[in-house]
Amino acid sequence: MFFLFYQLAGMSEEPLQIVMKKDIKFENPVAIEGFPDVGLAGAIASMHLIESWGLEEIAYIETSLIPPIMVVHNGELLNPIRIYGNKNYIVLTSEIALPLILLNSLTKKVVEWLNSVNASMLIALTGIPVENRFEIEKPAVYGVVSKKEHVDLLSKHKIEVLQEGFISGTYALFLKECLKAGLPAIALIAQSFLKYPDPGAAAELLTSLSTILSVSIDVKPLLENAEEIRLKARDLVKQTERVAPSTYRNVEGELPLMYR
What we know:
Strand order of the largest sheet: 1-2-4-7-8-3-9-12-10-11
CATH architecture: 3-Layer(aba) Sandwich
Number of helices: 7
Structural class: alpha/beta
Mean pLDDT: 85
Radius of gyration: 17 Å
Largest sheet: 10 strands, mixed
CATH class: Alpha Beta
CATH topology: Rossmann fold
CATH superfamily: PAC-like subunit
């Protein structure tokens, strides 16, 4: 198996590497990021995308900024922060919550890597908590762009662009780093539960993504298996709540999110 260590410039005392598992000839791929965040909307969406498109793992994140945690799926040992894709698409996902100490290094180095493979755009998928989510049948999706000229792209697809306010979290850092690096970036943000896994919000994110990319994404499994997904993802929600302000505690015995 082919392994290439992509060592990024400006390495800190705590190294972070992107380890390639496959030699892919990318063709200006679109990158899609869905890490654990509010309602796990982005994480659920990214993992569904990986499964429905049949994407292979092409790389993973190797770092000493997280505890020594591995994931086992069908007897295979996997790193928790992984990159899937093909020549046209790159999907970044994680089955563990990302501690604050990791985020700056991760976003900077991922964006640098995306530029090195001539990615055409980064689209971040995430959620925004709303108090009356139980009353909302179809969550709204909003957009945040790294450059004002991208507003037309979202308006064309009837996605409301956030005009005022603050943004925070992993997707905010990705937008910041993309802006600095000159890589076009969009964040799609769905109304979501704060403390419950939200497959409905993930489905709306993917529906909006499909219109932007002009590709087919079947979201019916997310809606039909919503309760099963919520049960599977409950541990990751708890973990995300715990580590967002601090560090990892014991996660042994908790269920990984992928492969329903």
